[in-house]
Specification:
Number of helices: 1
CATH class of the largest domain: Mainly Beta
Largest sheet: 9 strands, antiparallel
Distance between the termini: 77 Å
Shape: elongated
Number of strands: 30
CATH architecture of the largest domain: Sandwich
Protein name: Beta-xylosidase
Structural class: mainly beta
Radius of gyration: 31 Å
Keywords: Signal
Strand content: over 45%
Helix content: under 10%
InterPro entries: TAT_signal
């Protein structure tokens, strides 16, 4: 036997056996819900690469599944981490294996109120493994969107170990008796129901003591609804009550005497609530007080402006990722400035949607782009900017920032976002581009 042939076979066996043993190690699972993690062990069946000439290996793995939010709402995005704490096998050879040859991927199984699988991927990262030494643990991460309220269980599922050492090889491992024990449970709440109550006024102004007709829709059928004048953020003494009909509609008069009135609201319950109210609808009381002798009445006008936006640039270069590793390609949105100089009661919403990221002959789905929005209100602005929720942007779109309706709105706002494109592990090399379109309304 030649020395060269012997060395080649040793390297090949080191790679193949390394893959096999790592795969067995990944078989175990230990789970940890936020604040109440539970370790679980489960049997795993691993199939080494055919060229290794090794029969399937059965072992037990200990792993942990954790989440970044154990009390999400429907529509929230939850990050899942599947971590193998104690692999089930050791290096079966006396040959040392190098660092950073292993890239794990797998699935976490959802049960209970929401079912399905969450795809998770790990970094190409591992410590060197000495001959006959235990294999190191590893972890994989992924995200899912909550679609149903209630208790959602998470169990470690099947996984695959890809190794890059001499050869590119895969070792798939499956849960012997699926599903594996539950290692994490989260409780999802219903998404807040949108308040669709709305009112309209029969006129936008009147003299002190005039009656204005208030009509509205989408109130609770049969509810007693209070009609009230508003002066800025405060309620005036002008009130009346009406009863919503079987369809939730209202109609009734409100006598307005207070000369400081700027709007009219309608609400269910004992006091104004954003959740149970509508308005304010703008209303002005005309000051018809007689001008005294030897006096002059001075009047000026403040003209309304428009709602507009501008951005610091029109391109963003995201951080590159490696083929075979994939993961988040991150960057920062070009800063957007929103100016609301209308001066009325209306709020605004800034939304965005993105196309697929394409390269010649390949693409990354639009649903892989997520963002973490931020919004800052310029001092003195009547409105307060609200950042959208972190999560997927996708082709359907998501809210980047908004400002609610109020008696008087307006101001200047600076909007930013951290961007993250989840690049699948073996996405073909190339330059991928997508278009993120922002809409202000």
């Amino acid at each position: 036997m030649s020395t060269t042939g012997s060395t080649t076979r040793r390297r090949r066996w080191a790679a193949l056996l390394g893959v096999t043993a790592l795969a067995v190690a990944a078989g175990g699972a230990l789970a940890a819900p936020a604040g109440a993690a539970t370790n679980v062990d489960f049997a795993t069946h691993c199939i080494p690469p055919a060229v290794a000439g090794i029969p399937p290996i059965d072992g037990t793995t200990t792993a942990i599944v954790t989440v970044d939010n154990a009390s999400p709402k429907v529509g929230d995005t939850v990050k899942v981490t599947y971590k193998v704490v104690t692999p089930a096998a050791s290096n079966p050879t006396s040959i040392s294996l190098p660092a950073d040859i292993m890239t794990p991927s797998g699935k976490v199984t959802l049960g209970g109120a929401q079912t399905g699988d969450v795809t998770v991927v790990g970094e190409k990262k591992n410590d060197p493994v000495a001959g006959n030494a235990p294999f190191p643990g590893f972890e994989m991460t992924g995200t899912f969107t909550v679609t149903a309220p209630g208790a959602i269980t998470l169990s470690p599922g099947d996984y695959n170990i890809h190794t890059s050492y001499i050869l590119e090889l895969d070792t798939p491992c499956t849960v012997t008796n699926p599903p594996a024990p539950v290692s994490e449970t989260i409780t999802a709440a219903d998404a807040p129901q949108p308040n669709t109550r709305a009112i309209q006024l029969g006129s936008a102004s009147g003299n002190p003591g005039d009656s204005v007709t208030v009509t509205g829709s989408n109130f609770t059928p049969g509810a007693t609804v209070t009609l009230a004048g508003r002066s800025g953020a405060s309620q005036t003494g002008d009130t009346a009550t009406v009863t919503a009909d079987a369809s939730g509609s209202i109609s009734g008069p409100l006598v307005v005497n207070d000369k400081t009135t700027t709007g009219v609201v309608a609400y269910e319950g004992a006091a104004w609530s954003d959740d149970l109210g509508a308005g304010p609808a703008a209303y002005t009381v005309i000051d018809n007080t007689p001008i005294p002798d030897n006096a002059q009445k001075l009047t000026t006008t403040v003209n309304p402006g428009k709602l507009s936006m501008s951005q610091a640039g029109d391109s963003v270069t995201l951080k590159a990722v490696d083929f075979g590793k994939g993961g988040p390609s991150t960057g920062d949105l070009q800063t957007v400035t929103v100016q609301d100089f209308r001066g009325g009661p209306a709020g605004w919403s800034l939304t965005g949607k993105v196309t697929d990221f394409t390269a010649p002959g390949a693409k990354i789905d639009a649903g892989q782009l997520s963002w973490t929005p931020a919004c800052v209100t310029k001092a003195g602005s009547p409105s307060t900017c609200q950042a959208g929720s972190p999560g997927t942007v996708g082709s359907s779109g998501a809210t980047l920032a908004s400002a609610p309706a109020a008696t008087l709105t307006g101001g200047e706002f600076t909007v930013d976002a951290q961007l993250s494109l989840n690049v699948p592990q073996f996405t073909p090399p190339g330059s991928y581009s997508g278009v993120l379109t922002l809409t202000l309304s």
